[in-house]
Structure formats: structure tokens, C-alpha cells
């Protein structure tokens, strides 16, 4: 289920990215050890009092080729209004209320979204009085915080969480496969949507009846129901900021959150660029099933090994997603298009696959027998028992004598053995190590 989105808005230098990093904090540690994952981020997950949400740092969204700061801030505020459920409006106690703060306030006023006014850099008691002038912005009680010292962040989070909307279920049955298409502008997302829907024996449902009917497209093929997530948002065009990378990432994130399967589109004609990696990285982090779709294959001059060479390039660039199958096709000529949905269905099945505990333990026992766990300072990792605790993505818990003794490389070895035994093609696998109590 999708998480609510909190956006941090404010002029430059008030401390947005400092607070953003505090909010998403240690959760990054899980993914940052994977090669190829970007660190330059504006979107992350946070949790407070058991409530999970996503955070966007709108300050990271710079408008290309536009050095007018005010114009940039305005656009960021508009973006936040469009995309967020709760807006944290950040100001700077040291600077006091500035004209740009008032500009931002004007825009946020009209949003109709909950706006939480937060005054940063309240580093000491002397500054506490400085927050009163911010009442003039008209958003009620300012929450004083200090990004440097970490004070007040809990109070801010309390207010944020109080204002998070209750998320509605998206209304689709459990067996409907939710599919998101992501990729940089012009890679062919809209063309592929149209091609899929125009395929033989695809029945597009015109029955609305879901909370998201305005932007999703449900359809059925070979007895399997699918829904294409956020296809209308994809078609929306024309605003300046839509061409910026970070904006497209932000758009894609919302669709990824709601999806089971993410199609990562690559332009076969132009090859892989850095932006493709950022986008794919989010699908990996969100724990979604994924596959690569190399589109515009009609434009590629083909020789004997063209496909294998392209495949190798993808494997080299996306080291964190070697489990994702690759489909080459052309949305325009529909060449190889019929190969796509069977793969989508297959990875969706793998994403919700549950393996029996005794089978899992057999595989792990065999793995240990072939390659015994490492020792550290004379102590050897002992694995007692493993069990799958969740699906979507498949999540395993391995009970051991001491989790500290589990090395990343051994965990990867176990993951490879699990994959070799049970497939799990197209889905990330999460492995957690716990001390056996
Ligand atoms: P952004 O442009 O709004 O994202 O702001 P940054 O997070 O980059 O912070 C701008 C500057 O303010 C940096 O030099 C931070 O170290 C500093 N800063 C952030 N939070 C605090 C704070 O609570 N107190 C003080 N004194 N400085 C802070
Ligand atoms: P989006 O921005 O990702 O939604 O991309 P569009 O679907 O709007 O496609 C961008 C451009 O690429 C359009 O001119 C399409 O006609 C073209 N295009 C899309 N798919 C293909 C394809 O498979 N082959 C070729 N040659 N052109 C394509």
C-alpha cells in the first residue's frame, strides 16, 4: 500500500536537507552498501510512532537553467502542493521572517493541504523567543527545531504524523497485478501503455469503481487482471519542471509505491544513462518486483550478438538488480511486445512466492555444508533456523548465535543459493539476521 508523502519546502539555506537527512536517517544504511545505488537523493522513507511515510526534499529539485531563486522556490512549493499530503514549511530563526518566506506562505495558503510551520536553527534557549515573529506567517504555532543539535525533531514529527491522512486502500483485489512504467522522458512510456492496451485479446475495463480510477487503467489478458498505475500522470505534459530529472523521479516514486511490478524502461537507441540507474534504484529500495524493458529496439541495428551485448551492459550498470529479467521490444512496431505480459506475470508470482520452512532450511543446510560460515576472532557464525516471514518482497529471517558474525558476503552467498533453489526471478529478497533467543 502507498505511503503518505511529506514535502519539505522553504527557501535555500534554512536547513531543509539537514532535516531531510535526519528524518530518513539510519534507514538508508540498508541500501547504501549495494553498489550502484545513488546517494544524491531527495526522496526517502521515514517512520514515527509506527507510521510510515515518504519524505521529499523539494530543495533538491532545481530548475535547470534557471538561476532565479524565487522562481525556483515558487515551483518547488507548487510541486509540494501537487504531490504531498502534508507540507513542512521551513524557516530560519537566525534570519527571521524574510520576503521569500512570505512569498512561499502566499502559495501554501491556497493549497488546502495541511501546512506545518517549522523554524529551524533554534540552537539555544536564547533563540526560543525568535520563533514568535513567525506567527505572522499565519500558519499557527511554529515548531522550533535545530537540525544541528537534533532538538525539536520529535515534536515536529508528532505534528507531522497527526496530520497524515488515513490512506485508503486502492480498491483492487489482491490478485490484480499493479504495474508501473518508469523511465526518463521520451523513453516511450506512453507509447508502451498504448501498445499494451491495443494488444490482441487485451480487454480494457471501462468500469471505474476504484478510488484511483481517474489515473489508473485496469485491463485483463489471458484471464489475468492487471492495472497500469498512474498512466494519466504520465501523459500530463507541458510544465517546465517536468523535464527535470528530480521531478520525474518524484512522479515515478508515487507510482512505484503503489505498484507490485515496476517496468524500468531503457532507451535501446540511446543506451543507459545515469538517470536510468537512479530511477531503477528506487524500485529496488521499495522492494518491488522489476524487469527491464529495452524499448525502441526497432531503431537498433542488429548483428549476431547485439542483444547479448546490450544485456551485458545492463548487468554491468545495474549491479543491484541482477535478478531482473530483460525484455527487448518496440512499442512502436509492436515487435516482441507479446513477450512482455508473461514476464510481468512471472515476476509478480515470484514476488509473492512463499517457500515452506523445511525446504528453506534444507537449502540453507546444504549451503552451509558446501561453504561453512565465516569465523571472526575465533568465533564461528552458527545458523540455527530460517523462515520466510513475508512476501512482496520475500523476506527471510535467519536465526543465528550472533548477528554480528554474519558478513555481507555470506549473506549474499545465501541469497544466491536461495535464488538457485526457488527462482525468485525479478524480485528483491530481504534477509534479516536475528539472534536466537
Ligand atoms: P537547505 O538549502 O534548506 O537544504 O539547507 P541545508 O540543510 O543545506 O543547510 C544550510 C546551512 O544551514 C548549512 O550550513 C547547515 O549546516 C546549516 N544548518 C542546518 N540546520 C542548522 C541548525 O539547526 N542550526 C544552525 N546553526 N545551522 C544549521
Ligand atoms: P514517454 O515520455 O516516456 O511517455 O515517451 P513517449 O511514449 O511519448 O515516446 C517518446 C517518443 O518516442 C515518441 O515520438 C514516440 O513515437 C517514440 N517512440 C516510443 N516508442 C518507440 C519505439 O519503440 N520505437 C521508436 N522508433 N520510437 C518510439
UniProtKB/TrEMBL annotation:
Q: Pfam families, alphabetically?
A: KH_dom-like, MMR_HSR1
Q: What InterPro entries does this protein map onto?
A: G_ENGA, GTP-bd, GTPase_Der, KH_dom-like, KH_dom-like_a/b, P-loop_NTPase, Small_GTP-bd
Stretches assigned to the EngA-type G domain: 4-168, 177-352
A Gene Ontology biological process noted in the UniProt record is: ribosome biogenesis
Binding sites annotated in the UniProt record for GTP 2: 183-190, 230-234, 295-298
Q: What is the residue range of the signal peptide feature?
A: none
The UniProt keyword set, sorted, is: GTP-binding, Nucleotide-binding, Repeat, Ribosome biogenesis
Enumerate the GO terms in the molecular function aspect.
Answer: GTP binding; ribosome binding
The record, for CDD domains, names: EngA1, EngA2
Indicate which residues the UniProt annotation says bind GTP 1.
Answer: 10-17, 57-61, 120-123
Domain of life of the source: Bacteria
Free-text function comment from the UniProt entry: GTPase that plays an essential role in the late steps of ribosome biogenesis.
**UniProt record similarity statement:** Belongs to the TRAFAC class TrmE-Era-EngA-EngB-Septin-like GTPase superfamily. EngA (Der) GTPase family.
Q: What HAMAP family is this protein classified in?
A: GTPase_Der (MF_00195)
Question: Which PANTHER family would you find in this protein's record?
Answer: GTPASE DER
Subunit and partners: Associates with the 50S ribosomal subunit.
Protein name as annotated: GTPase Der
Q: Which organism is it from?
A: Paenibacillus vortex V453
Amino acid at each position: 500500500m502507498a505511503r503518505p508523502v511529506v514535502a519539505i519546502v522553504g527557501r535555500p539555506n534554512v536547513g531543509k536537507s539537514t532535516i531531510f537527512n535526519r528524518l530518513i536517517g539510519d534507514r538508508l544504511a540498508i541500501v547504501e552498501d549495494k553498489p550502484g545505488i545513488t546517494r544524491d537523493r531527495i526522496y526517502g522513507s521515514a517512520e514515527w510512532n509506527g507510521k510510515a511515510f515518504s519524505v521529499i526534499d523539494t530543495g533538491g529539485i532545481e530548475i535547470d537553467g534557471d538561476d532565479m531563486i524565487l522562481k525556483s522556490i515558487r515551483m518547488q512549493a507548487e510541486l509540494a502542493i501537487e504531490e504531498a499530503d502534508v507540507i513542512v514549511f521551513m524557516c530560519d530563526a537566525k534570519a527571521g521572517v524574510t520576503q521569500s518566506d512570505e512569498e512561499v506562505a502566499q502559495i501554501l495558503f491556497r493549497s488546502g493541504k495541511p501546512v506545518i510551520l517549522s523554524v529551524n536553527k533554534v540552537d539555544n534557549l536564547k533563540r526560543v523567543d525568535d520563533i514568535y515573529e513567525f506567527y505572522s506567517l499565519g500558519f499557527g504555532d511554529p515548531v522550533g527545531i535545530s537540525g544541528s543539535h537534533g532538538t525539536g525533531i520529535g515534536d515536529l514529527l508528532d505534528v507531522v504524523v497527526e496530520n497524515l491522512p488515513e490512506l485508503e486502500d486502492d480498491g483492487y483485489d489482491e490478485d490484480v497485478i499493479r504495474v508501473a512504467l518508469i523511465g526518463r522522458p521520451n523513453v516511450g512510456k506512453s507509447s508502451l501503455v498504448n501498445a499494451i492496451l491495443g494488444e490482441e485479446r487485451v480487454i480494457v475495463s471501462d468500469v471505474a469503481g476504484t478510488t484511483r480510477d481517474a489515473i489508473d487503467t485496469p485491463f485483463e489478458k489471458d484471464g489475468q487482471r492487471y492495472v497500469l498505475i498512474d498512466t494519466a500522470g504520465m501523459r500530463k505534459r507541458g510544465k517546465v519542471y517536468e523535464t527535470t530529472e528530480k521531478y520525474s523521479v518524484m512522479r515515478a516514486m508515487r507510482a512505484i509505491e503503489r505498484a507490485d511490478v515496476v517496468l524500468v524502461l531503457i532507451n535501446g537507441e540511446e543506451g543507459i544513462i545515469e538517470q536510468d540507474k537512479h530511477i531503477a534504484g528506487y524500485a529496488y529500495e521499495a522492494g518491488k518486483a522489476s524487469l527491464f524493458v529495452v524499448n525502441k529496439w526497432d531503431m537498433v541495428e542488429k548483428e549476431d550478438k547485439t542483444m547479448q551485448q546490450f544485456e551485458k551492459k545492463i548487468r554491468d550498470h545495474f549491479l543491484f538488480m541482477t535478478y531482473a529479467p530483460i525484455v527487448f521490444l518496440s512499442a512502436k512496431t509492436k515487435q516482441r511486445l507479446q513477450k512482455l505480459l508473461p514476464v510481468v506475470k512471472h515476476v509478480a508470482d515470484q514476488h509473492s512466492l512463499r517457500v515452506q520452512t523445511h525446504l528453506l532450511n534444507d537449502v540453507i543446510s546444504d549451503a552451509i555444508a558446501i561453504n561453512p560460515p565465516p569465523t571472526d576472532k575465533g568465533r564461528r557464525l552458527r545458523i540455527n533456523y530460517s523462515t520466510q516471514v513475508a512476501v512482496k518482497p520475500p523476506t527471510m529471517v535467519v536465526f543465528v548465535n550472533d548477528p554480528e558474525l554474519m558478513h555481507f558476503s555470506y549473506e549474499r552467498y545465501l541469497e544466491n543459493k536461495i535464488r538457485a533453489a526457488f527462482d525468485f526471478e525479478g524480485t528483491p529478497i530481504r534477509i534479516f539476521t536475528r539472534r536466537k533467543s
